[in-house]
Design brief:
Structural class: mainly alpha
Number of helices: 5
Strand content: under 5%
Radius of gyration: 28 Å
Largest sheet: none
Distance between the termini: 79 Å
Order of helices and strands: HHHHH
Helix content: 55-70%
Shape: elongated
């Protein structure tokens, strides 16, 4: 089951003084409710959990989270609206600071490099966008071959243009001499 990371979002950036920056344009204003932020944060945490379960080969548990976590996350967010006891740990977990987005962006790269060196099994990380190293290598070789072919084609076209220009020049020069 693929892991959808589209709901994971980095929180607003902090200034040096630790206070939150205020959005300067309407397109930057976060209009989500606290409940929505909690729900989305809990869904993102579940995706991290799924990724870990996939890495250790617990496919059934990862699938169970994928199938059943969404309503649990929503209900936890709803309960957190009226219970500080529930809200505080949720808010702490989902408020990872400005580094959360960076970690989420770097994780697939790190996992792919780990798979490339045999440190982790790439077949268990397909949901994280990781592919077996031999597939990645074949894709890269194909891209390099295509770039080489494109470069050779461009070189041949440039040589043909140069020959045409040279022939035109010689034709013009022959007319002037005559």
């Amino acid at each position: 089951m693929p892991i959808d990371m589209s709901l994971a979002k980095a929180p607003p950036k902090k200034t040096a003084s630790g206070t939150r920056r205020v959005a300067t344009s309407t397109s930057q204003i976060d209009t989500r409710s606290v409940n929505q932020k909690r729900n989305e944060g809990l869904l993102g945490l579940a995706q991290v959990g799924q990724g870990i379960l996939l890495m250790v080969g617990q496919y059934a548990d990862a699938a169970a989270i994928g199938q059943h976590w969404r309503p649990v996350a929503q209900e936890l967010a709803n309960v957190a609206d009226t219970s500080d006891f529930i809200a505080k740990p949720i808010d702490f977990l989902i408020e990872v600071g400005p580094y959360g987005g960076l970690v989420a962006a770097l994780l697939p790269l790190g996992l792919q490099i780990a798979a490339n060196h045999g440190w982790v099994d790439a077949t268990k990380l397909v949901g994280q966008g990781v592919v077996p190293p031999d597939v990645l290598e074949a894709q890269m070789k194909a891209q390099v071959a295509k770039m080489q072919a494109d470069a050779m084609r461009a070189q041949q076209e440039a040589l043909m243009e140069a020959r045409k220009a040279q022939a035109e020049y010689e034709k013009i020069m022959a007319k002037e001499v005559a």
